[in-house]
User: What shape does this take?
Amino acid sequence: MGLLDLSRKLIMKASAIRAVQRIDELGAISETDDGLLRQFLSQANLRAAEKILEWMSLLGMHCEHQADGTIRGILSGSNPTAKPLLLGSHIDTVAHAGKYDGALGVIAALAALEDLLESGCTLPFPVHVLGFSDEEGVRFQATYLGSRAVVAGLDESLLSCRDAAGDALRDVLERDGWHDGAAHFRYAPGDVLGYVELHIEQGRVLEEAKLPIGVVSGIAGQSRISITLKGQADHAGTTPMPLRRDAMVGAAACVLAAESLAHAHSPLVATVGQISLSPNVSNSVPESVKFSLDFRHPDDEQRVELLDLLSHQFHQIAQQRDLEIHWQVVQESGAVACDDFLIEKISRAAKKVTGRCLTLASGAGHDGVMMQQIGPIGMIFVRCLKGLSHHPDEYCAPEDIAAGIDVLVEFLNSFHEA
Ligand code: GLV
Ligand code: MN
Ligand code: MN
Assistant: This one.
């Protein structure tokens, strides 16, 4: 541990201590007792939103919430009519999640504003802190619903997406949306100075470089596909092997094909993370299997080309095994570059706080992918233990959180001088 890291560990500011406590507090708000889960528009997601609104009010922010659960706190600054700078992250989680992914970005933004207010600084523009109700896309297999709603709205095809219970997003919004006093905020291109998000790195680059903070150059593009293979259910004891049309074995071959393709074409990453089969009984040959494919590459052209190749391989596997295949592209988002000016500003702020700063790309998706439609985006990465994320053991050291908050403060201070 370097001297700067050590001093941050020994002398933690009240705002950083509070941020660490808030991470725990939010991490305890879950749909399930069996690990952290806060899906889009679940009761836990709404409870987390309410908790953050309380924290925003404590800072004297003007608070609003949308029917889709996304929240916003506004600190008006000395010129309330100036274009705002947006900060924030998402408040939903995957299943068996860590408590830092998303939550840290919102909590750190509030901590940075707390520090600024305490130092007597008034920014010459408003700051909007956003807590997006969905980034992970767990419930509807469509990501960025929170940020998408505030920049573009949710279109018909999204509103028709169904969750695992078979409920359409349109109906879930109607039934469970936050209607009581809900606001309808929307940003158009050019409305904002920019969007800056602090997030745990979810990789090992910073840990290996022994650095608490990095600045993000861009976010990899991703495709999400839903695949269904259909064969025939049959008796597991009596159906001879050559006569079977086993959808599960076909799916297994597809999973291996995806893995081989990704190994052969680094930095491509391909993941089958969700699977269901029917009839799902131990003594029947599986008739149909539905599985997800998450497919990412920093280069859009290569992603599209390699996905075509994999689709061809899956169709061949289906044909060889006499299975029907249904390949549905659920979502595609292109790679997004962070803004050079914001990269420079964040980098300078990080160097001032930690001595050094590394520029790195993000393989994970972030709300900036949507927010870049309305203005420049920048991201601050904070080191996390072993790069582990989407896992209950996800961990970000308090002194690294403190460094992240300091970088945000430094960035905000220097941003308005530009
Ligand atoms: C979000 O965490 C994603 O990259 O899937
Ligand atoms: Mn995540
Ligand atoms: Mn995240």
Notes: The mean pLDDT is 95. The chain has 13 helices and 16 strands.
